[in-house]
Amino acid sequence: MKQIPASIEVDPKTNWVMMVKSCKDCNESFKDIISKDPEGYKWKQTVTKELGSWVNTTPENVKIHAKDKGCPHDCGMCSSHISAPCSVVIDPTNRCNLACPFCYANASNKGVIVEYTYEEIVRILSYFADMKPNKPAMIQYAGGEPTLHPDIVKIVKTTYDMGFQHVMLDTNGIRMAKDIELCRQLKEAGLGAIYLSFDGLEPETWKKNRGVDLSKVKRKFIENCRAVGLDGIMLVVTIAKGTNDHEIENIMNFAKENADVVAGIVFQPVSLCGRIAYEDILKLRYTTSDLEKELARVTKGKLTSFYPLAFTGKFTALLAWFNDLPMWSLASHADCGFATILPFNDDGEWESLEDYADLEGLVKWSNQVYDMVMKREIPKVSGIFTGMKDVLSQVGLGNLVDIVSEFGDKLTDTMYRQVMKGYYISGAMKYFKNFDINKLFNNRMYQSTAKLMLDPKLENSKALLLNKNLFIGCMHFQDAYNMDVERVKRCLVHFGVLNPENKNEVLDIPFCTYNTIHRERIEAGLSSVKCDKTPAQITAEAEEIAKELSQNM
């Protein structure tokens, strides 16, 4: 694959945002759809900068690989990369108990098995644990199917013990649906969140996407997790146009019905592979704008604001700083996806997050306080700070005004954090609509939000989401047809892999380039062990498990 010039343009005939590419070598031009909502697209491109949310997270102490062929061919990482990874994906094994037709990673499709030892995984973890100034917030174990690795429980525990804030498992749920004891062991090991592949509720959807009807397997998985107290489940929906895009409303309702353990939904429009004609790309491409339109319809207009990930760049970093946690920031490209929260009330009706708060105002205030913190500025003991002393007392920060008055610029680091936390909360209150102090005690949205601001740990972020506030996000991963090197440079989701030429060296590769360009070469160099099962055999075994679980429900 060769890098060629491209531009982002609005097509005058369709009013769609298009990537237009031209290849001098073959004398051809190519187009792909980026968005069908030009106004929304333009807003996402500018809002982060306009609000001042952007944070520089470029890693400072990682080995930089020399540029040879240029981005995106020199990943490892190279000096072109701008954003540090927030989430690191590690494939403990590429063995899988499914043979999904569109999967890029499983052993039965590849023909060889790639499986790291426990010690090799610790080597990869150590590389990212030492990353400065921004250590990744999350480690995700994917695959293949990670629960097939013989040491998966030990791996999860070690990751937790090494101090990563979030330990997540990306799973199809089959083994955990069959083995509740495994669910319990993973919970005890420190597993904090789960990405559960979830394509819909209709049996036919599963057969098309996965080759097996897994609808009841997924329900059994949810039951087992609920029984052992495993929550923080994200339903991960691979959307294929004409296959399961009609299931979005079903999936939203399922998440709402199981909101005691399901924290949200992450939609992932399917990447296109192989040689595809332009006309077919138009038929197959499902964009974030298609998803946004359907979400607005399903929620009856309650969800219409879709914020780029970097919108909260300084906000997340500030909350971490307040509690002396490793600072992290979603410093991604605007085209990579969106994130928001969708509340629903006791009657199961969707509500709008914007009914609770002026989000742009709150983010702008967060950015202002973050900038003060970086300069170690001390707020004046006047105006909004003193006027909110009663509110601060209610959340245990009532003595901060007196501390600032007495100590001024002699504050210790710990005292300064507490002062700035109080100052921030004081100023943030005016951006919550119709707020009064009693809502801290009788409104679950305000209670959960205040608790998260005071103590931004995984447990409190999950408590917010599991309190009738679903996370709704979209990650639109790139393929060869819409690859944009500007997005690659700002990628937040990186694969951690061993260098096949030197297994003592860890490579740090952006998600989209790994799957599109580097995976095949690296996996070929890591293993020569042949897969002992065909896709047909694996599918037959999965069907047997699904049948068995269905009979026991």
Report a brief summary of the structure.
Helix content is 41%, strand content 16%. It has 553 residues and is α/β, with parallel strands linked by helices. The mean pLDDT is 87.
Protein traits:
three-stranded antiparallel β-sheet, 553 residues, TIM Barrel, eleven-stranded mixed β-sheet
Descriptive overview:
- There is one protein chain.
- The chain is of the alpha/beta class.
- Helix 6 (180-189) packs across helix 8, helix 13 runs antiparallel to helix 17 and helix 16 crosses helix 17 (413-428).
- The chain is globular and about 70 Å long.
- It is 41% helix and 16% strand.
- The chain has a domain at 48-350 and 470-540: TIM Barrel.
- The mean pLDDT is 87.
- The N and C termini lie far apart (49 Å).
- The longest helix is centred in the last third of the chain and has 17 residues, at 535-551.
- It has an eleven-stranded mixed β-sheet, with helices on both faces.
Question: What is the strand and helix layout of this fold?
Answer:
Blueprint (H helix, E strand, L loop, with lengths): L5 E5 L6 E7 L4 E8 L2 H14 L35 E4 L16 H4 L1 E2 L4 H12 L8 E4 L10 H10 L4 E6 L2 H5 L1 H10 L3 E5 L5 H8 L4 H14 L4 E7 L8 H10 L4 E8 L8 H7 L3 H11 L8 E2 L4 H10 L14 E7 L15 H16 L9 H4 L1 H6 L5 H8 L5 H16 L10 H4 L1 H11 L3 H8 L3 E7 L9 H5 L3 E7 L2 E9 H16 L2 E2 L4 H17 L2
Helix pairs in contact: 3-4, 4-6, 6-8, 12-13, 13-17, 16-17, 19-20
